[in-house]
Amino acid sequence: MATHQTSHPHAAMTPTVRKLADELQPLLDTLAACMDRGDARGAAALFAEDSNLISPSGMIGTGAAGVQRVIAADMQTILKASHSHFTIDSVRPLGDMAFVDATHEISGGQAGAAGTLEVHVVLLARKQGAGWKLAEARPYLFVTPPTKH
Hints:
By secondary structure, the chain is α+β, with helices and mostly antiparallel strands. It has three helices and six strands, in the order ααββαββββ.
């Protein structure tokens, strides 16, 4: 009888980078859970005190209060009544920090009304104690190049 094996979400990464991605994934899973339940305070708590967030709409949040303000605004608009899922695409270790490229899939709500919206997210995470905090976040959409007529 054949057994079904699910592939590891970070299988294509080197073992060292895969280990780091596996360490960081729970942070993004918690962020997604906060977004799903509309918990801006909980989401902002995942960011470092000196963090920065620039939303796809251009809102800038600096520090805990600023990040919470931007996330709350997104939760009232693009993320309202939606479901979020983050997948780490690549990680570059930088000492006690990690540069992360991730895909944020948003389904349902305003953003995912016509299907799943994929948002690219560039993150800088910082190791703090036994865990990780987000120091920088830049979610953005890829644009389709114009066609020539």
